[in-house]
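REVIEWER CHECKLIST
Item 1: Sequence provided? yes
Item 2: Single chain? yes
Item 3: Sequence as submitted:
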Amino acid sequence: MSDRSAGGDRGARGRGGARGVAYTVLTPANHYACRLPNLPGAEVVKLVTPRLAPARFAEYLVGLPPGGGTSDPAAPGFETFLYGLAGKVVVDAGEDGVLPLGPGGFVYLPAATGFALRGDPGAASRLLWLKRRYDPFPGVDAPGLAAGHRGDEAFEDTAVRGLRRRELLDPADPGFDFNMSLLAFEPGIDLGKIEIHDEEHGLYMTAGGGDYLLDRDRHAVVEGDFIYMAPYCPQGFEAGDDGGAEYLLYKDVYRDGF
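Item 4: Structure as written out by the authors:
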C-alpha cells in the first residue's frame, strides 16, 4: 500500500501522448475554487472539463453558501447529473417538478431540461455537478428525468467477492449515454484485474481509501479525491485494510466511440 497520510503532494497528472493526459489525480489540497456568473457566492472546483484533452464531459464540486443557488436557471443544452454530498438543495426542473437533493440523493436531467438550484437558507451545502453533450443514437429515444437516493435500492454483489455495486441510472437503458455507479469495497478487496477500455471515467472518492493503479503509476487516494481516467488508461484499485472504500464512478457507455 502507498502512504495515504500525505497531503497535496498526492496530486498528479499522467501524460498520455499527443492526444492529452492519461489521467489526473486531484486532492482537496490541490483545489482551486473559481466562480461562475450564474452561481453567485458559490465555490466551484472544476474537477475536469473538456479543456483537459481528451475529456468529453465536465464535473464540478459545488459549494453553496446558506441560501445560495443559481441566479438564473441553467439553460437547456447539456444533460446533467447532480449528486448531493452535504446539506440540502432543491432542484427546480420547471414542468418536470421540484426535487429535493440531500446527501446521497441524485437527479438526472435530460439535455432538453433547464433547471434551477436553491440551497438551504440555514446551512451551506455541497454537491457534484456533471454535465456533457448528449450523444444520440439512431432509433433510440433519449431518457427522461430520473431521480432517487442511494438508499432506495440495496447494493448488489458482483463477481468479485467483497465488491458491491449500486447503479444510479439504469445500465440496461440504451438511451443513457453514461452510467453513474457507486462501488463499495470491503477492506483489502481489489477490482480483480487491470482494466483497459475505450470508456473514460470520472471518479470521486465518497468514503475510505486505497491505492489506484493508473497507467504504470500507483497513487494513494482517500475520501474527497477525484480521478480522471482517459480512454485506454490501464487502471486497477485495491481498498485499504483499514475500513474499505467507496467511490462514485462516471463512465460513458452504449456508444461506439465515433
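Item 5: Key structural point noted by reviewer: The chain is about 0% helix and 45% strand.
Item 6: Recommendation: ____
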